Write the structure tokens for this entry.
Amino acid sequence: MMTRRTLLKAGGCALVAYAGAPRFLVRTARAAEPSGKVLVAVFQRGAVDGLSMVMPHGDPAYAGVRPSIALQPPRRGESERAVDLDGFFALHPALAPLVPLWERRALAVVHACGSPDTTRSHFDAQDYMESGTPGVKSTQDGWLARAIGGRAAKATPFRAVAIGPALPRTLHGDVGALSMQSLDRFDVRAGADTTARQGFEALYEQGVRDLLHGTGRETFDAVKMLKSVRASRIAPANGAEYPRAPFGEALRQIAQLVKADVGLEVAFADMQGWDTHVGQGAERGQLALRLRDFGAALAALAQDLGDKMADVVVLTMSEFGRTVAENGNRGTDHGHATAMLVMGGGVRGGRVYGRWPGLDRSQLFEGRDLAVTTDFRSFFSEVATRHLGVAATPIFPGFRSTQAPLGILA
Amino acid sequence: MSRTRSWTTRALVCVAVGFWAFGGCIQVKPGEGQVSAVTTVAPAPTAAVTGDRQILHALSRLTYGPRPGDVERVRALGVSAWIDRQLRPRTIDDSATERALAELTTLRMSIPELLREYPRPDPRLRAQIANGEMSRQEMLERYPIEKRPVRIADELRAAKVLRAVTTERQLEEIMVEFWFNHFNVFAGKGDVRWYVSAYEREAIRPYALGKFPDLVRATAHHPAMLFYLDNWLSAKPDYRIQAGPNRGRPAGLNENYARELMELHTLGVDGGYTQKDVTEVARAFTGWTIDRPRTDAHFIFRPGMHDTGEKIVLGHRIPGGGGRDDGERVIELLTRQPATARFVATKLVRRFVSDTPPPALVARVAGSYLNTGGDISSMLRTIFESPEFMSEDAYRAKIKKPFEFVASAVRALGGTTDAQGAMALARASAEIGEPLYQAQPPTGYADRGEVWVNAGALLARMNFALGLASGRYSKVSVELPALVAGADPRSPEAVLDRLLVTLVADQAGSRTRAVLAAQLNDPQITRLSPDDRGPANTDVAKLAALVIGSPEFQRR
């Protein structure tokens, strides 16, 4: 089957024939009906401490191994404390903006989720989580790209977009994903000279089959379409206020693309700064500050999209969790399982999913870390297949889930 | 047997090269790479690069891109003699660069001086602004931006750009960048902002072409690394902090440095260590810390923090009671592992040859490492003298990183910059995706093209090209008239050809030329007679911008 990127790469001859019409219009001939569903993947890079993000206050071993960084158990009416979710788990107080979503059952948690691979290397673990093939380094593409790779190409260069300086591993592949730091600046800026863009476009138009030319062509398609819909002019709706930080900015722009109806199917944003080896803090401190930005941005996205959120699912992930016990510097070292969030349309929210493995020393992975009871691939493939309506097999090659579905999406 | 065959192959390549080359043939010395690591025959590389392409290739890999006239200079010296000089930077006069750097005073200051001259903001100032006791204007006067610690990294960024653009010791500068990235620290993490420029000056630069184990030792002892990867806080279990604001607080083991030392600095992630090794190495380095980090900041070993028990690392026993020597022994052990040699060789070959390093060359470079105790110049020599390096497979195969692209664009236009211009160029590198000294994770920045090529970044490259050629970087001067000097100013076609030769040598395809030629009669340009912008109806700046933003110029 000829995918969009191979088509473009091979496409010198085929496409020159249509010269003049923007390629995304040319491709309409092959387009399927758009489902309108969008999956937004969010990566917390550096390994978030799932035990602080979604704290297991009901586990008797929790407080003892974290003398200076354990959260106080929730108590009704005390807003400084963690917010109880179900009598066993509680949300970090810095994530308070997400509580209304939980109460509306639009937000769920999968705890003790992670990779079957035991690496504690940030780099390898991120790579595995993005490729979707733990333990296999030779995989060329990413699972998020594969999730929509099997569908007929739609008439848009905006099927897959990452907001950030680089195209993340998880969007490498045949779908021709775009990455951009700012919708506003996504154009050739040559002042009054309108011919500069045409000049560059012509230079990248040539028939060489390589990464640079292919990306260049996709870029100019995208520039034209973005100009025509004026996406960067769309203001946040419903009083949503995004934190003025890179992650908030990324989600704000993803919302603009959703609202501009450019045919977005998957989007990606990431946030750094979760590698809390020293002075992690508890209700307040370093981790709390990161979580505040994180939660506020997610809540703003849901607010901003309003009714459109019915078509959007946001999935959060991190390469691994952190040690159950705090380390020698009131921080935590690299661990194993962590907590992941999912919110949006179709989510059966207000529940923490997954089997809790326990924090007693005898229950820990390698005697130190939270054990993985949900393979991230089970969770992701359930979300991707149910929400996007695609088949599971090509997304996570070689993987057959042995556990019952979580039932996390209606 | 296999060895003999690979020698023969190389000898043949060398003969062929010598036959065709204008410049000197790169001699393959028998015996180089003659190590046990060579067990497989290299799949014969494709055709060798010959003629002036050898010069262009060497310039594109050993420098931040050719300047006008560089090809002629290397031709006059001979490629191999020129490479040889680059490998011995002390023999190259570079006083002009030193003069250009003079105004960046923080580069030469010690950490204690920097801590004194660029103090951390007084928390009371913040409070006074918050409750309205002081205006923003007043604060800027009391605490001017140029006296803030952020100045230190800003000047370091400017210096990096200045050096890349102007230094004659190009290869040394490339290796400083390479090793800084290998032993990355993030200038935005806590006290690293005061330590970062001393780190490059003291722990990286002196060893950039020296011995790899010296780099590991120097970085392991430096306060920047001790702080960045938290080892300064790592202590034996149940240790209580003796002094400072945290006095009496318990402290204990921190694995961060130990893991990255093995994963990223020496063995590589597949180098055969276990979680147990990580913990044992962390124990060995307990007590390696920073003395008075906020006033003095130098390495100190504190026996009270050290775990005195026995450690077993990679199956080797380090008996108890070694004290500070435990860490030294771990470094010694790690830097003589074949896995380390392979890991370092792979990264070097990726930098200089190809995103997919040829395994046979990696094996020979690893052999050089093991034979010479990790001598970096020897490893580089093995690479530069290899048929894989001077092969058509490698020619223009690498895509420039954003910083390489920015520096090469300025150099290609014969540009010069002062410190202020260099800061603007550093911001350009950030816009294209590579903010200097700001890689937060310890992996540093990737060295593979696919990481840097994406829609937003490509547009940023084109916009930088337009800005640079049209003089939007006011402190960066580019010599457009000089670039096309010699071409008949009455002939736009001649000017274009001249420009293409200067900027992309033999790279511009006929279609690229056709696209650019179509720009020559741009109706938007209405000058009817030649002037200092070039021939009539020709905008040299715009042509230059299009070439610099073209696919061809993104490669090296």
